[in-house]
Amino acid sequence: MTTRVTVHRIDPDDPAQVDAVLDMDQLVWADDLRTPREVALADTPTRAAWIARVNGEAAGIAASWDVELSVPAAGGGASLRPVEGLTWVGVHPDHRRRGVLTALIREHLRWTRDEQGRSISVLKASEPGIYGRFGYGVTSSTVMSSFGRGTTFAAPSAVREVADATTLRTTTASPDQGRRWHALARECARTGAGHIVRSPQDSERLLADNPESRGTREPARLLWATRERRDVGAAYFHRTPKWTHGKPDGTVGVFFLVSTDAGARLALAERLVDIDLMGTTEYWVAPDDVLALWLPSPRSLGGSGVSDNMWLRIVDLPAAVAERGHAADVDLVVEVRDEILQDNAGAWRWTSTGADAAVTRTDATADLTLDIGDLGAAWLGGQTLGARAAAGFVTEHRPGAVAELDAALRTAVGPVGTIDF
Ligand SMILES: CC(C)(COP(=O)(O)OP(=O)(O)OC[C@H]1O[C@@H](n2cnc3c(N)ncnc32)[C@H](O)[C@@H]1OP(=O)(O)O)[C@@H](O)C(=O)NCCC(=O)NCCS
Fold this sequence. Notes:
By secondary structure, the chain is of the alpha+beta class. The chain folds into three domains: 134 residues, Gcn5-related N-acetyltransferase (GNAT) (Aminopeptidase); 125 residues, Aminopeptidase, CATH 3.40.630; 97 residues, Nonspecific Lipid-transfer Protein, Chain A (2-Layer Sandwich). It is built from twelve helices and 21 strands. Strands 1, 2, 3, 4, 5, 6, 9 and 16 form an eight-stranded mixed sheet that branches. The longest helix has 16 residues. It starts with a strand and ends in a 12-residue tail after the last helix. The structure holds coenzyme A. Coenzyme A binds next to strand 4 and helix 3.
C-alpha cells in the first residue's frame, strides 16, 4: 500500500496548530513534560514549522530556525550568510519508515530555495544514518573532550600576554544579555567558517532560565571576556555539583565558547578548567581549535572521540558558489548529482578569478563528477574532495581536477564547532 503524505506549513497564529507541533515533539523525544506548557510553547519554533499528515492524521513535524552561517570569505576569514537551520524533526512512532521524513525534508529544501531564496540548509543530527541520503554532508566535526581540573594550556607567551590583559566576569545567563551575546557572536563568526549565529530573538530566548528542565544543574552562567572595554569572548556554562568519597567532583558543562582572538580563548578556557569544587570540564572542541593545539596531543583531550558536529546541504549551487570565497583561481567542469533538487544537477563550468566565483551551465565534458553531499562536506573546509575521491565518492575524469577544486575550496583553518540549534 502506498502511503500518501501531505505536508503543510502551520499558521503560527493558530494555537491548535502550534499545540499539535509541540505535542508531536514531546511524544517523539520522550519529553518528561516537567516544563510548564506556556514555557514549552514559547520555545516552539513557529516562524516556519510543518506538519506532515497521513490520511489526515498528524504523522510528523519539522521546523526551521532563521540563522546565519559563517562561510569562507575571499581573502581569508569568513562572512555571514543567512541560511536555514532545520530542527524539530520528528515522526510519530506509528508512522515511521513510510516516507514521512522524506516528504518533510523535500518540502524544507524546496521552501529554503524557492521561497526563502537561501542557498544552504544546515542541521545537527540525532543519529548519523539519517541525512546523507538527502544530500547533506558532514561539514564540521567535534572532539567530545573532557578537561581535568587545572589542565595546562601550553600557549605561546604572546598569546598569554593577551590573555593576561583580558578581564573575566561571571554573570547568570538572562534574556537581557541576548543582544550583547548576539553582537559578540557575529563578530566572532568572522574569524572562521562554521559558526552559527542565532537571531537576536532566539539568542534572548536561549538565555532564559527554566528550573523545571535543568534538573540538578544550577542556572546557566555567562562568562564574559573583555579587553579595553570591548567584548572579546564569552562562554555559556553551568555546574553540576557532585561529591565522590567526600571529595568535590562536580562537572562544568560548557555549551558555547566564542572568542575574537586566541588570548580571549585562553583566558576563558583557563578559568573554565579551574572552578572550585569542580573536577571535570566538558567542552567539545573542533579538531583545529587552539585549545586542542595547546595540549601535547589529541590524546590529552580525554572525552569519547570524534563525532559529526554540523551537516550542510547546498540547495542553490550557483548562489552558494557566488557567496563563498575561493582560495585559488579555478576553471573546470563539474558534473553534479542531485536526486532531490534537479536545478543543482548536471554539468557546470566552475570558475573563480580573484574575489569572483561562479558556476554556469555547460555542455562541455566533465572533469569530475560528485554528489551535492560531497560539496556539503567540503564547503567549510572540514573535508577534502581528494579524501572523498579516495573513498570512491568523487570521480576524477581529468587527472588533477580534484586537486584544483580542492585548492579553490581550501580554508586556512578547519571549521569551528558550533552551538546547538
Ligand atoms: C528519524 C526519523 C525522523 C525518520 O522518519 P521516517 O519517516 O521514519 O523516515 P522515512 O520513512 O522518510 O525514511 C527515509 C529513509 O531514511 C531511512 N532512515 C530513517 N531514519 C533512519 C535512522 N534513524 N537511521 C538510518 N536510516 C534511517 C529509512 O530507512 C529510509 O530509507 P530508504 O529510503 O532506503 O527506504 C524518525 O524515526 C524519528 O522521528 N526519530 C526520532 C527523532 C529523531 O531522531 N529526529 C531526527 C532529529 S535530527
